[in-house]
Amino acid sequence: MHPPNAALRTQVAQVLVDISNLETRLKEKHAELGRLQHQLDAVIYPVLSLPPEIVSEIFVLCLPTERMSMDMDALNWNEAPLLLSHICGQWRHIALAMPALWRELDIELLCPSRRAHDLEMIETWLERARKHPLSLRIKAPTSEFVDTPFTQTFFGHASTIQSLDLDLMDNDLEMVTRRVEFPILRKLYLRASDEYGRDGFSDDAIEMFDEVPRLSEVLLYYIPAHLVVLPWQQLQKFTGDFYNVSQCLQALELMPNITECAFSIEVEEGESDFNVVSHPEMRCFTLFYSECVGMGGAAYNAKILKFLTFPKLESLELLDVEAYNEGDLHAFFDRGSPPLQRLLIRPHANEGFGNLTMGMKPLLESHLTYLEVWYPTPLLITRFFRRFGDEQTFTPGLQELAFTCRNRAHEASRNVVLDRAGGALTMRTSLAGVAQLRVFRVDAVGKAFSGYRDEELLPFRKLKEHGMEVYITHRGGPNLI
Predict the structure, then answer these.
(1) Which of 132, 212, 403, 404 has its CB 3.0 to 4.6 Å from that of 374, i.e. a possible disulfide?
(2) What distances in angstroms separate CA 212 from CA 145, 207, 231, 246, 248, one per listed residue?
(3) How far apart are alpha carbons 481 and 417 in whole angstroms?
Protein backbone atom coordinates (compact mmCIF):
# COMPACT_ATOMS: atom_id res chain seq x y z
CA MET A 1 0.00 0.00 0.00
CA HIS A 2 1.38 3.45 -0.98
CA PRO A 3 1.76 6.01 1.81
CA PRO A 4 -0.82 8.79 1.82
CA ASN A 5 0.00 12.06 0.02
CA ALA A 6 0.48 13.97 3.26
CA ALA A 7 3.26 11.62 4.37
CA LEU A 8 5.08 11.97 1.02
CA ARG A 9 4.90 15.75 1.20
CA THR A 10 6.43 15.62 4.69
CA GLN A 11 9.31 13.47 3.46
CA VAL A 12 10.00 15.77 0.47
CA ALA A 13 10.03 18.81 2.77
CA GLN A 14 12.53 17.12 5.07
CA VAL A 15 14.87 16.25 2.15
CA LEU A 16 14.71 19.88 0.96
CA VAL A 17 15.66 21.05 4.45
CA ASP A 18 18.59 18.60 4.50
CA ILE A 19 19.80 19.84 1.08
CA SER A 20 19.59 23.45 2.25
CA ASN A 21 21.60 22.62 5.36
CA LEU A 22 24.22 20.82 3.28
CA GLU A 23 24.49 23.72 0.83
CA THR A 24 24.96 26.12 3.73
CA ARG A 25 27.62 23.82 5.17
CA LEU A 26 29.35 23.62 1.77
CA LYS A 27 29.42 27.42 1.46
CA GLU A 28 30.94 27.66 4.91
CA LYS A 29 33.66 25.15 3.93
CA HIS A 30 34.39 27.06 0.70
CA ALA A 31 34.76 30.24 2.72
CA GLU A 32 37.05 28.50 5.20
CA LEU A 33 39.12 27.11 2.32
CA GLY A 34 39.47 30.60 0.85
CA ARG A 35 40.70 32.01 4.14
CA LEU A 36 43.24 29.20 4.58
CA GLN A 37 44.47 29.55 0.99
CA HIS A 38 44.91 33.29 1.51
CA GLN A 39 47.01 32.61 4.60
CA LEU A 40 49.00 29.95 2.74
CA ASP A 41 49.69 32.26 -0.18
CA ALA A 42 51.09 34.77 2.27
CA VAL A 43 53.65 32.22 3.52
CA ILE A 44 57.12 32.49 1.94
CA TYR A 45 58.95 29.14 1.84
CA PRO A 46 62.49 29.51 3.22
CA VAL A 47 64.04 28.11 0.05
CA LEU A 48 62.17 30.69 -2.06
CA SER A 49 63.46 33.49 0.15
CA LEU A 50 67.09 32.80 -0.78
CA PRO A 51 68.78 35.35 -3.06
CA PRO A 52 68.97 34.20 -6.69
CA GLU A 53 72.77 34.25 -6.46
CA ILE A 54 72.69 31.61 -3.69
CA VAL A 55 70.12 29.50 -5.54
CA SER A 56 72.33 29.67 -8.63
CA GLU A 57 75.30 28.32 -6.70
CA ILE A 58 73.14 25.48 -5.33
CA PHE A 59 71.91 24.66 -8.84
CA VAL A 60 75.47 24.31 -10.12
CA LEU A 61 76.26 21.90 -7.27
CA CYS A 62 73.24 19.82 -8.32
CA LEU A 63 74.73 19.05 -11.73
CA PRO A 64 75.57 15.32 -11.94
CA THR A 65 79.25 14.44 -11.94
CA GLU A 66 78.33 11.23 -13.75
CA ARG A 67 75.28 10.32 -15.77
CA MET A 68 72.64 8.28 -13.95
CA SER A 69 72.49 5.92 -16.92
CA MET A 70 75.31 4.57 -19.04
CA ASP A 71 73.82 5.67 -22.37
CA MET A 72 75.34 9.17 -22.02
CA ASP A 73 71.93 10.76 -22.52
CA ALA A 74 71.71 14.12 -20.73
CA LEU A 75 68.13 14.74 -21.85
CA ASN A 76 66.96 13.24 -18.58
CA TRP A 77 64.08 14.91 -16.77
CA ASN A 78 65.12 13.28 -13.48
CA GLU A 79 68.47 15.08 -13.40
CA ALA A 80 69.67 18.64 -13.23
CA PRO A 81 69.37 20.96 -15.04
CA LEU A 82 66.09 19.83 -16.64
CA LEU A 83 64.67 18.73 -13.29
CA LEU A 84 65.39 22.11 -11.70
CA SER A 85 63.60 23.98 -14.46
CA HIS A 86 60.33 22.17 -13.76
CA ILE A 87 59.93 22.59 -9.98
CA CYS A 88 58.29 26.01 -9.90
CA GLY A 89 58.15 29.22 -11.87
CA GLN A 90 60.78 31.00 -9.77
CA TRP A 91 63.29 28.14 -10.11
CA ARG A 92 62.62 27.85 -13.83
CA HIS A 93 63.31 31.56 -14.29
CA ILE A 94 66.63 31.22 -12.41
CA ALA A 95 67.64 28.06 -14.29
CA LEU A 96 66.94 29.52 -17.71
CA ALA A 97 68.93 32.65 -16.83
CA MET A 98 72.04 30.61 -15.94
CA PRO A 99 74.23 29.79 -18.96
CA ALA A 100 76.64 27.87 -16.71
CA LEU A 101 73.88 25.41 -15.86
CA TRP A 102 73.74 24.31 -19.51
CA ARG A 103 77.49 24.15 -20.11
CA GLU A 104 77.61 20.35 -20.47
CA LEU A 105 75.67 18.18 -22.89
CA ASP A 106 75.90 14.41 -23.26
CA ILE A 107 73.83 12.98 -26.06
CA GLU A 108 73.56 9.62 -27.79
CA LEU A 109 72.15 9.82 -31.32
CA LEU A 110 70.63 6.38 -31.29
CA CYS A 111 66.90 6.22 -31.99
CA PRO A 112 65.83 7.61 -35.41
CA SER A 113 62.26 8.05 -34.19
CA ARG A 114 63.50 10.49 -31.52
CA ARG A 115 65.92 12.34 -33.77
CA ALA A 116 63.68 15.35 -34.52
CA HIS A 117 62.70 15.72 -30.86
CA ASP A 118 66.30 15.36 -29.70
CA LEU A 119 67.53 17.92 -32.23
CA GLU A 120 64.96 20.45 -31.01
CA MET A 121 65.95 19.83 -27.41
CA ILE A 122 69.67 20.09 -28.23
CA GLU A 123 69.20 23.40 -30.02
CA THR A 124 67.20 24.73 -27.05
CA TRP A 125 69.88 23.49 -24.64
CA LEU A 126 72.68 25.18 -26.58
CA GLU A 127 70.70 28.41 -26.85
CA ARG A 128 70.36 28.45 -23.07
CA ALA A 129 74.14 28.10 -22.75
CA ARG A 130 74.50 31.28 -24.80
CA LYS A 131 78.23 32.00 -25.16
CA HIS A 132 79.32 30.04 -22.11
CA PRO A 133 82.19 27.60 -22.85
CA LEU A 134 80.68 24.21 -23.66
CA SER A 135 81.63 20.62 -22.90
CA LEU A 136 80.01 18.30 -25.45
CA ARG A 137 79.97 14.51 -25.43
CA ILE A 138 78.40 13.00 -28.54
CA LYS A 139 77.94 9.31 -29.21
CA ALA A 140 76.63 8.07 -32.56
CA PRO A 141 76.85 4.26 -32.59
CA THR A 142 75.30 4.10 -36.05
CA SER A 143 76.57 5.69 -39.25
CA GLU A 144 74.16 8.60 -39.21
CA PHE A 145 76.19 11.52 -37.87
CA VAL A 146 77.57 13.12 -41.03
CA ASP A 147 75.40 15.48 -43.09
CA THR A 148 72.56 15.54 -40.56
CA PRO A 149 70.81 18.61 -39.15
CA PHE A 150 72.60 17.94 -35.88
CA THR A 151 75.99 18.20 -37.64
CA GLN A 152 75.09 21.71 -38.76
CA THR A 153 74.01 22.64 -35.23
CA PHE A 154 77.28 21.22 -33.90
CA PHE A 155 79.38 23.21 -36.38
CA GLY A 156 77.39 26.36 -35.58
CA HIS A 157 78.53 26.25 -31.93
CA ALA A 158 82.17 25.34 -32.61
CA SER A 159 83.36 28.75 -31.41
CA THR A 160 82.09 28.07 -27.85
CA ILE A 161 83.20 24.43 -27.47
CA GLN A 162 85.89 24.09 -24.80
CA SER A 163 85.82 20.30 -24.41
CA LEU A 164 84.69 17.80 -27.05
CA ASP A 165 84.25 14.04 -26.80
CA LEU A 166 83.22 12.39 -30.10
CA ASP A 167 82.42 8.68 -30.20
CA LEU A 168 81.65 7.77 -33.82
CA MET A 169 81.80 4.88 -36.21
CA ASP A 170 85.00 4.77 -38.25
CA ASN A 171 83.37 5.69 -41.53
CA ASP A 172 81.58 8.66 -39.94
CA LEU A 173 84.81 9.92 -38.40
CA GLU A 174 86.63 9.65 -41.70
CA MET A 175 83.86 11.52 -43.52
CA VAL A 176 84.00 14.51 -41.18
CA THR A 177 86.55 16.24 -43.39
CA ARG A 178 85.21 19.78 -43.07
CA ARG A 179 87.76 22.05 -41.40
CA VAL A 180 86.17 23.96 -38.55
CA GLU A 181 87.67 26.61 -36.31
CA PHE A 182 87.58 25.73 -32.61
CA PRO A 183 89.16 28.87 -31.08
CA ILE A 184 88.77 27.87 -27.41
CA LEU A 185 88.93 24.05 -27.63
CA ARG A 186 91.32 22.74 -24.97
CA LYS A 187 90.36 19.09 -24.58
CA LEU A 188 89.60 16.69 -27.45
CA TYR A 189 88.58 13.04 -27.15
CA LEU A 190 88.07 11.04 -30.35
CA ARG A 191 86.77 7.50 -30.10
CA ALA A 192 86.25 5.25 -33.12
CA SER A 193 84.14 2.11 -33.17
CA ASP A 194 84.48 -0.45 -35.94
CA GLU A 195 82.69 -3.78 -35.98
CA TYR A 196 85.03 -5.05 -38.67
CA GLY A 197 88.22 -4.68 -36.63
CA ARG A 198 91.34 -2.56 -37.00
CA ASP A 199 91.67 -3.30 -40.73
CA GLY A 200 88.46 -1.36 -41.35
CA PHE A 201 90.13 1.96 -40.53
CA SER A 202 91.55 3.65 -43.63
CA ASP A 203 94.71 5.76 -43.86
CA ASP A 204 92.81 8.94 -44.72
CA ALA A 205 93.76 11.80 -42.42
CA ILE A 206 91.15 13.41 -40.17
CA GLU A 207 91.56 17.13 -40.80
CA MET A 208 88.60 18.66 -38.99
CA PHE A 209 90.70 19.78 -36.00
CA ASP A 210 93.44 21.63 -37.79
CA GLU A 211 92.47 25.05 -36.35
CA VAL A 212 92.66 24.55 -32.57
CA PRO A 213 95.10 27.17 -31.19
CA ARG A 214 94.42 26.39 -27.49
CA LEU A 215 94.32 22.60 -27.64
CA SER A 216 96.41 21.02 -24.87
CA GLU A 217 94.86 17.61 -24.09
CA VAL A 218 93.98 14.80 -26.52
CA LEU A 219 92.68 11.26 -26.15
CA LEU A 220 92.52 8.94 -29.17
CA TYR A 221 90.75 5.61 -28.78
CA TYR A 222 91.63 3.09 -31.48
CA ILE A 223 92.76 5.90 -33.82
CA PRO A 224 96.48 6.05 -34.67
CA ALA A 225 97.89 9.50 -33.92
CA HIS A 226 99.43 9.97 -37.35
CA LEU A 227 95.94 9.83 -38.93
CA VAL A 228 94.75 12.98 -37.13
CA VAL A 229 95.92 16.44 -38.20
CA LEU A 230 96.55 18.34 -34.97
CA PRO A 231 98.97 21.00 -33.70
CA TRP A 232 100.99 18.25 -32.05
CA GLN A 233 103.81 20.55 -30.95
CA GLN A 234 101.53 22.41 -28.48
CA LEU A 235 100.03 19.38 -26.72
CA GLN A 236 100.75 18.90 -23.01
CA LYS A 237 98.75 15.73 -22.31
CA PHE A 238 98.02 12.74 -24.56
CA THR A 239 96.27 9.40 -24.07
CA GLY A 240 96.42 6.62 -26.64
CA ASP A 241 93.90 3.88 -25.89
CA PHE A 242 94.20 0.44 -27.52
CA TYR A 243 97.47 1.12 -29.33
CA ASN A 244 100.26 -1.22 -30.33
CA VAL A 245 103.88 -0.52 -29.46
CA SER A 246 104.66 0.91 -32.90
CA GLN A 247 101.75 3.38 -32.73
CA CYS A 248 102.83 4.52 -29.26
CA LEU A 249 106.34 5.27 -30.46
CA GLN A 250 105.02 7.08 -33.54
CA ALA A 251 102.74 9.21 -31.34
CA LEU A 252 105.60 10.19 -29.02
CA GLU A 253 107.71 11.30 -31.97
CA LEU A 254 104.85 13.59 -33.10
CA MET A 255 104.73 15.43 -29.76
CA PRO A 256 108.06 17.09 -28.95
CA ASN A 257 106.71 19.11 -25.99
CA ILE A 258 104.39 16.59 -24.36
CA THR A 259 104.78 16.41 -20.57
CA GLU A 260 102.06 13.91 -19.59
CA CYS A 261 101.24 10.74 -21.52
CA ALA A 262 99.23 7.53 -21.00
CA PHE A 263 98.88 4.41 -23.16
CA SER A 264 96.98 1.16 -23.11
CA ILE A 265 98.88 -1.24 -25.34
CA GLU A 266 97.35 -4.31 -26.94
CA VAL A 267 99.12 -7.63 -26.57
CA GLU A 268 101.01 -8.47 -29.73
CA GLU A 269 102.08 -11.90 -30.87
CA GLY A 270 105.80 -12.30 -31.36
CA GLU A 271 108.58 -9.91 -30.50
CA SER A 272 109.47 -6.75 -32.40
CA ASP A 273 112.53 -4.57 -32.13
CA PHE A 274 112.30 -0.80 -32.31
CA ASN A 275 114.75 2.01 -31.85
CA VAL A 276 114.71 3.56 -28.39
CA VAL A 277 112.75 6.82 -28.32
CA SER A 278 114.09 9.52 -26.03
CA HIS A 279 111.60 12.16 -24.96
CA PRO A 280 113.27 15.07 -23.15
CA GLU A 281 110.15 16.79 -21.73
CA MET A 282 108.10 13.86 -20.38
CA ARG A 283 107.21 14.34 -16.70
CA CYS A 284 104.34 11.87 -16.12
CA PHE A 285 103.94 8.52 -17.88
CA THR A 286 101.17 5.95 -17.33
CA LEU A 287 100.46 2.51 -18.74
CA PHE A 288 96.91 1.33 -18.05
CA TYR A 289 94.55 -1.54 -18.73
CA SER A 290 91.80 -1.09 -21.31
CA GLU A 291 88.82 -3.37 -21.75
CA CYS A 292 88.63 -2.46 -25.45
CA VAL A 293 84.88 -3.02 -25.57
CA GLY A 294 83.79 -4.42 -28.93
CA MET A 295 87.37 -4.89 -30.12
CA GLY A 296 87.59 -8.53 -29.10
CA GLY A 297 90.58 -8.06 -26.83
CA ALA A 298 92.27 -6.18 -24.03
CA ALA A 299 95.25 -3.88 -23.77
CA TYR A 300 97.65 -4.31 -20.87
CA ASN A 301 101.12 -4.72 -22.36
CA ALA A 302 104.10 -2.99 -20.76
CA LYS A 303 106.87 -4.09 -23.11
CA ILE A 304 107.12 -0.56 -24.47
CA LEU A 305 109.37 0.27 -21.49
CA LYS A 306 112.16 -1.46 -23.41
CA PHE A 307 112.08 1.29 -26.02
CA LEU A 308 111.69 4.49 -23.96
CA THR A 309 114.00 6.98 -22.32
CA PHE A 310 112.57 9.83 -20.23
CA PRO A 311 115.42 11.77 -18.58
CA LYS A 312 113.06 14.21 -16.78
CA LEU A 313 110.36 11.72 -15.69
CA GLU A 314 108.85 12.51 -12.28
CA SER A 315 105.88 10.10 -12.12
CA LEU A 316 105.49 6.53 -13.42
CA GLU A 317 102.25 4.55 -13.03
CA LEU A 318 101.87 0.95 -14.19
CA LEU A 319 98.15 0.25 -13.73
CA ASP A 320 96.79 -3.27 -14.23
CA VAL A 321 99.47 -4.14 -16.78
CA GLU A 322 101.68 -7.16 -17.30
CA ALA A 323 104.13 -8.48 -19.93
CA TYR A 324 107.01 -6.56 -18.40
CA ASN A 325 109.81 -7.93 -16.33
CA GLU A 326 112.37 -6.85 -13.81
CA GLY A 327 115.07 -6.43 -16.42
CA ASP A 328 112.98 -4.08 -18.57
CA LEU A 329 112.15 -1.94 -15.56
CA HIS A 330 115.78 -1.78 -14.45
CA ALA A 331 116.96 -0.88 -17.95
CA PHE A 332 114.31 1.83 -18.25
CA PHE A 333 115.51 3.55 -15.07
CA ASP A 334 119.19 3.09 -15.91
CA ARG A 335 118.92 4.58 -19.42
CA GLY A 336 117.42 7.92 -18.49
CA SER A 337 118.28 8.14 -14.78
CA PRO A 338 115.04 10.12 -14.29
CA PRO A 339 114.49 12.16 -11.11
CA LEU A 340 111.48 9.99 -10.27
CA GLN A 341 109.32 11.31 -7.43
CA ARG A 342 106.27 9.05 -7.72
CA LEU A 343 106.08 5.32 -8.50
CA LEU A 344 102.83 3.32 -8.54
CA ILE A 345 102.76 -0.36 -9.56
CA ARG A 346 99.42 -2.19 -9.76
CA PRO A 347 99.88 -5.51 -11.60
CA HIS A 348 97.17 -7.19 -13.64
CA ALA A 349 98.66 -10.65 -13.20
CA ASN A 350 96.76 -13.31 -11.28
CA GLU A 351 99.62 -13.78 -8.84
CA GLY A 352 101.16 -11.15 -6.64
CA PHE A 353 103.83 -8.68 -7.64
CA GLY A 354 107.40 -9.46 -6.66
CA ASN A 355 109.57 -7.73 -9.27
CA LEU A 356 110.46 -4.68 -7.21
CA THR A 357 114.15 -5.30 -6.62
CA MET A 358 115.43 -3.46 -3.57
CA GLY A 359 118.44 -2.26 -5.56
CA MET A 360 116.34 -0.54 -8.23
CA LYS A 361 117.71 2.94 -8.87
CA PRO A 362 114.64 5.01 -7.79
CA LEU A 363 114.63 3.26 -4.40
CA LEU A 364 118.16 4.44 -3.75
CA GLU A 365 117.68 8.10 -4.63
CA SER A 366 116.30 10.98 -2.59
CA HIS A 367 113.97 12.10 -5.42
CA LEU A 368 111.42 9.34 -4.71
CA THR A 369 108.83 10.68 -2.25
CA TYR A 370 105.79 8.49 -3.08
CA LEU A 371 105.67 4.70 -3.48
CA GLU A 372 102.53 2.61 -3.90
CA VAL A 373 102.54 -1.15 -4.59
CA TRP A 374 99.52 -3.41 -5.09
CA TYR A 375 99.44 -7.17 -4.40
CA PRO A 376 103.00 -7.54 -3.05
CA THR A 377 104.43 -10.98 -2.30
CA PRO A 378 105.54 -11.83 1.27
CA LEU A 379 109.16 -11.92 0.09
CA LEU A 380 108.92 -8.41 -1.33
CA ILE A 381 107.41 -7.11 1.92
CA THR A 382 110.08 -8.82 4.03
CA ARG A 383 112.95 -7.48 1.94
CA PHE A 384 111.49 -3.99 1.75
CA PHE A 385 110.94 -3.42 5.47
CA ARG A 386 114.19 -5.16 6.42
CA ARG A 387 116.05 -2.37 4.63
CA PHE A 388 113.55 0.42 5.28
CA GLY A 389 114.20 0.56 9.02
CA ASP A 390 117.98 0.08 8.85
CA GLU A 391 119.58 1.71 5.81
CA GLN A 392 120.05 5.41 5.19
CA THR A 393 120.58 4.85 1.47
CA PHE A 394 117.28 3.01 0.94
CA THR A 395 114.36 5.29 -0.10
CA PRO A 396 116.06 8.22 1.66
CA GLY A 397 113.47 10.78 0.53
CA LEU A 398 110.29 8.70 0.91
CA GLN A 399 107.39 10.57 2.52
CA GLU A 400 104.34 8.53 1.54
CA LEU A 401 104.13 4.72 1.39
CA ALA A 402 101.08 2.63 0.46
CA PHE A 403 100.30 -1.06 -0.04
CA THR A 404 97.11 -2.77 -1.23
CA CYS A 405 96.63 -6.45 -0.43
CA ARG A 406 94.35 -9.27 -1.50
CA ASN A 407 93.47 -12.37 0.48
CA ARG A 408 95.16 -14.72 -1.99
CA ALA A 409 97.75 -17.46 -1.80
CA HIS A 410 101.35 -16.43 -2.58
CA GLU A 411 100.53 -12.79 -1.74
CA ALA A 412 101.18 -10.81 1.41
CA SER A 413 98.02 -10.33 3.45
CA ARG A 414 97.34 -7.10 5.28
CA ASN A 415 98.34 -8.88 8.49
CA VAL A 416 101.74 -9.76 7.01
CA VAL A 417 102.34 -6.18 5.87
CA LEU A 418 101.47 -4.77 9.29
CA ASP A 419 103.58 -7.37 11.08
CA ARG A 420 106.67 -6.41 9.04
CA ALA A 421 105.91 -2.67 8.95
CA GLY A 422 105.32 -1.87 12.64
CA GLY A 423 108.88 -2.27 13.85
CA ALA A 424 110.47 -0.91 10.66
CA LEU A 425 108.42 2.30 10.74
CA THR A 426 109.30 2.84 14.38
CA MET A 427 113.02 2.31 13.71
CA ARG A 428 112.81 4.67 10.73
CA THR A 429 111.82 7.56 12.99
CA SER A 430 115.24 7.31 14.68
CA LEU A 431 117.24 6.83 11.47
CA ALA A 432 119.41 9.86 10.70
CA GLY A 433 119.90 11.26 7.23
CA VAL A 434 116.51 10.23 5.80
CA ALA A 435 113.20 11.98 5.28
CA GLN A 436 110.53 11.12 7.80
CA LEU A 437 107.50 9.25 6.50
CA ARG A 438 104.39 11.45 6.66
CA VAL A 439 101.75 8.99 5.39
CA PHE A 440 101.47 5.19 5.65
CA ARG A 441 98.50 3.35 4.13
CA VAL A 442 97.51 -0.31 3.96
CA ASP A 443 94.24 -1.20 2.26
CA ALA A 444 92.72 -4.64 1.80
CA VAL A 445 90.48 -5.60 -1.10
CA GLY A 446 88.40 -8.72 -1.56
CA LYS A 447 87.01 -10.65 1.38
CA ALA A 448 86.85 -9.03 4.79
CA PHE A 449 89.87 -9.60 6.99
CA SER A 450 89.78 -10.63 10.62
CA GLY A 451 90.26 -8.03 13.29
CA TYR A 452 93.41 -7.15 15.18
CA ARG A 453 94.45 -7.31 18.76
CA ASP A 454 95.33 -4.02 20.45
CA GLU A 455 99.00 -4.99 20.75
CA GLU A 456 99.18 -5.49 16.97
CA LEU A 457 97.93 -1.96 16.30
CA LEU A 458 99.84 -0.33 19.16
CA PRO A 459 102.95 0.62 17.08
CA PHE A 460 100.78 2.38 14.51
CA ARG A 461 98.80 4.24 17.16
CA LYS A 462 102.04 5.52 18.65
CA LEU A 463 103.23 6.62 15.20
CA LYS A 464 99.95 8.45 14.70
CA GLU A 465 100.34 10.18 18.06
CA HIS A 466 103.72 11.46 16.89
CA GLY A 467 102.25 13.03 13.77
CA MET A 468 102.30 10.32 11.09
CA GLU A 469 99.10 9.82 9.11
CA VAL A 470 98.30 6.10 9.33
CA TYR A 471 95.42 4.48 7.45
CA ILE A 472 94.54 0.80 7.82
CA THR A 473 91.37 0.13 5.87
CA HIS A 474 89.28 -2.44 3.98
CA ARG A 475 88.17 -1.34 0.52
CA GLY A 476 88.96 2.24 1.47
CA GLY A 477 86.42 2.12 4.31
CA PRO A 478 86.72 3.34 7.91
CA ASN A 479 90.20 3.64 9.36
CA LEU A 480 91.01 1.03 12.01
CA ILE A 481 93.49 3.37 13.67
Answers:
(1) 404
(2) 22, 11, 7, 27, 23
(3) 15
